[in-house]
């Protein structure tokens, strides 16, 4: 439902991070409330859209999921164009994906808008027993890079809505 006096924003959001970190699962959980243990690797790019209501505004998220670009930590210019937010995903049970996240942040800082809202997402929080990347490491990196930090699980749904609320709030504030 949209209130008549609410503002309406369309927010292009790009989803980046290493292969297997859970980008597609995150989007699918947010948009459809679904999760698959055997999520098929994304081919090329995928596109999701979802409305989210804040007290003063409704935000339509246009989510650009990526695949295949992971290896090069770089995106085609069309991804950056007009993007309001970027979600950088890693898997807490894999140090390697955290290292890749750092590469993505560098890339976004070079090519993204200087107003880009950036989220560092430590995904797979349900895999706590296999954790390789400590919360403090993620938080510190996010802080140094001007991002906000959140731990999510696409599997249990933990903090998925919170992630997008936080992005929506930060974008709305920037207007
Ligand atoms: P992508 O390559 O970044 O798009 O990653 P996918 O969304 O395809 O996920 C890769 C694998 O990780 C799949 O087997 C998913 O089921 C699994 N996965 C994704 N998110 C989570 C999570 O939060 N917890 C757990 N345990 N597995 C996850
Ligand atoms: Mg994918």
From TrEMBL:
Superkingdom as given in the UniProt entry: Eukaryota
Coiled coil residues, start to end: none
Protein name stated in the entry: Uncharacterized protein
Organism encoding this protein: Stylosanthes scabra
Taxonomic lineage of the native organism: Eukaryota, Viridiplantae, Streptophyta, Embryophyta, Tracheophyta
Portion held of the full protein: 211 to 385 of 410
């Amino acid at each position: 439902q949209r209130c008549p006096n609410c503002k309406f924003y369309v927010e292009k959001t790009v989803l980046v991070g290493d292969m297997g970190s859970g980008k597609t699962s995150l989007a699918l959980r947010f948009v459809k409330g679904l999760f698959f243990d055997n999520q098929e690797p994304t081919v090329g790019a995928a596109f999701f859209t979802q409305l989210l209501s804040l007290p003063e505004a409704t935000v339509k998220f246009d989510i650009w999921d990526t695949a295949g670009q992971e290896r090069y930590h770089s995106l085609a210019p069309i991804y950056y164009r007009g993007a309001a937010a970027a979600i950088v995903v890693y898997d807490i049970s894999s140090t390697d994906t955290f290292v890749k996240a750092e590469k993505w942040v560098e890339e976004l800082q070079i090519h993204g808008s200087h107003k880009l809202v950036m989220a560092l997402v430590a995904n797979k929080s349900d895999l706590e027993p296999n954790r390789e990347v400590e919360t403090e490491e993620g938080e510190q990196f996010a802080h140094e890079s001007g991002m906000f930090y959140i731990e999510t699980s696409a599997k249990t749904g933990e903090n998925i809505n919170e992630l997008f609320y936080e992005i929506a709030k930060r974008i709305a504030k920037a207007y």
